[in-house]
Design brief:
By secondary structure, the chain is α/β, with parallel strands linked by helices. The protein contains 14 helices and 19 strands. The protein has four domains: 131 residues, Methylthiotransferase, N-terminal domain (Rossmann fold, 3-Layer(aba) Sandwich); 119 residues, 2-Layer Sandwich (Transcription Regulator spoIIAA); 120 residues, Transcription Regulator spoIIAA (2-Layer Sandwich); 55 residues, OB fold (Dihydrolipoamide Acetyltransferase, E2P). Helix content is 34%, strand content 22%. α13 links the parallel β13 and β14. It is globular and about 60 Å long. It binds S-adenosyl-L-homocysteine, iron/sulfur cluster and FE3-S4 cluster.
């Protein structure tokens, strides 16, 4: 029988994990910290102080991928300065897509691990320490991975991410995700609930349910008996949980139950990130999106019916192959029609191995630049107007951090606006009611009226 107390404590080792890309990568990075904690690894603030540096990478656009190599170069200098006494791991979607290529291009990298294999990190680190050859694991088994993750989370704060669904079977013609994350998979309903309970017990007040297509969540069975709506209803019953959000959804996976939940579940925030990508049906077809501009707008109307104050966000791609001026105008019209509270917009980036990268009529860079500029100006105007419309109103803010300035704290409104509130640190971890006194393009400011709910 082993006596836990008699075991010598593991020596402390510094761990630095850097996340790029989407929120799923942020979640994965947090889970890597959880997995490595029993080995004695503790997060450190600066990469120079780390024994292990993990770069959790993103492959979505060319720029994101290139950033990894410049970052490896920077970390290599730190490693060299320590006489090589540092391990460098490349994780995430670039690891999956480029695999052994990474170690060829950057031999300083000790190990490469894909997004579905990071639960093998302890074993991979041990192998890398033996320096007996290439250490690479890009195996795909999301089920194994989630089963291996500890229920205990190290550092969750007041607003936490929780991955419920991974992978994608949609194969939009521009996108690498189905190749880097693998097939669509939903975690079993009860396991997700267990993790939500553990978060609530840790003091988490807001849960952000994550998935590449989070509304395709089916509870781990194919008949979608327990979809995302059902999951949200269950999580809302957990005592500590005051706010629930989910991201990112696909227009084709919306179901009535989820829409109804927006009218019924008080904890479900009045905000929906539903990417449309383009307002032109011709472009949407070439993108293999399987929805039209009209069907997208009809979906938004259904949400407005059950929750009239709901705020919408989206992703856009400009300059997809074959996009004409007229197609781009249709995107601008759609934006005018919806009136978004915020949005992400990108120039189309050719990704190796995706169908769109081989399409004729690629769009010139200067045309993409001009379209992005015009679209972003409109989106910024809408965001600014949305923020300005809050002035004079009361809103509730979940305060998650101290502000940059003294006497100021930071949090989010129900509509996911960034909010700066006058007040001291004692407000962190509380939901407070504020009066909005000012607004900028990116954020709003306000004065507390009272503490609404306590942690
Ligand atoms: N699963 C989500 C988003 C995944 S990627 C969805 O289906 O909406 C996040 C965003 O990156 C996408 O919504 C898209 O706008 C953008 N994106 C993906 N591939 C891209 C590419 N090749 N070039 C430019 N933007 C891209
Ligand atoms: Fe990529 Fe499309 Fe899947 Fe979203 S739905 S992850 S854009 S392939
Ligand atoms: Fe990037 Fe992979 Fe997320 S490519 S956007 S980190 S799924």
């Amino acid at each position: 029988m082993t006596n836990e107390n008699s075991q010598s404590p593991k020596p402390k080792k510094g761990l630095f994990v850097q996340s790029y890309g989407c929120q799923m990568n942020v979640y994965d990075s947090e889970r890597m910290v959880d997995i490595l904690a029993p080995l004695g690894y503790r997060p450190v603030e600066n990469s120079e102080d780390a024994d292990l540096v993990v770069l959790n990478t993103c492959h979505i656009r060319e720029k994101a991928t290139e950033k990894v190599y410049s970052e490896i170069g920077r970390i290599k200098q730190q490693k060299d300065a320590k006489g090589g006494d540092m391990m460098i791991a490349v994780a995430g979607c670039v690891a999956q897509a480029e695999g052994a290529q990474i170690m060829k291009r950057a031999p300083t990298v000790d190990l490469v691990v894909g997004p579905q294999a990071y639960h093998h990190l302890p074993e991979l680190i041990a192998r890398a320490a033996r320096k007996s050859g290439e250490v690479l694991d890009t195996s795909f088994d999301a089920i194994d991975k989630f089963d291996a993750l500890p229920i205990k989370r190290e550092n969750t704060g007041y607003s936490a991410f929780l991955s419920v669904q991974e992978g994608c079977d949609k194969f939009c013609s521009f996108c690498v995700v189905p190749y880097t994350r693998g097939a669509e998979y939903s975690r079993p309903f009860d396991k997700v609930l267990d993790e939500a309970k553990a978060l609530a017990d840790n003091g988490v007040m807001e849960i952000n349910l994550l998935g590449q297509n989070v509304n395709a969540y089916n509870g781990g069975d194919d008949i979608k008996k327990h979809g995302l709506g059902a999951l949200i209803r269950e999580i809302s019953k957990l005592p500590n949980i005051k706010r629930i959000r989910y991201t990112t959804s696909h227009p084709c996976d919306m179901d009535e139950d989820l829409i109804m939940a927006h009218g019924e579940v008080e904890e479900l925030m009045p905000y929906l990130h539903l990417p449309v990508q383009s307002g032109s049906d011709k472009v949407l077809k070439a993108m293999n999106r399987k929805h039209t501009a009209k069907s997208y707008l009809e979906t938004l109307d259904k949400f407005r019916k059950v929750r009239p104050d709901i705020a919408f966000a989206s992703d856009f791609i400009v300059g997809f192959p074959g996009e004409s001026d007229e197609d781009f105008r249709e995107t601008m019209q759609l934006v005018e029609e919806v009136n978004y509270s915020s949005a992400f917009s990108f120039k189309y980036s050719r990704r190796p191995g995706t169908p769109a990268s081989g399409m004729m009529r690629q769009i010139a860079e200067d045309v993409k630049d001009a379209r992005l500029y015009e679209l972003q100006a409109l989106l910024a105007k809408q965001q600014g107007e949305f923020n300005a419309s809050s002035i004079g109103k009361n809103t509730k803010v979940l305060v998650t951090n101290k502000g940059k300035r003294e006497g100021q704290v930071f949090g989010k409104s129900p509509f996911l606006q960034s909010v700066f509130v006058s007040g001291g640190e004692e407000l962190v971890g509380k939901i407070i009611e504020i009066k909005v006194t000012g607004a900028g393009q990116q954020s709003i400011v306000g004065e507390p009226i009272g503490v609404f709910e306590n942690a």
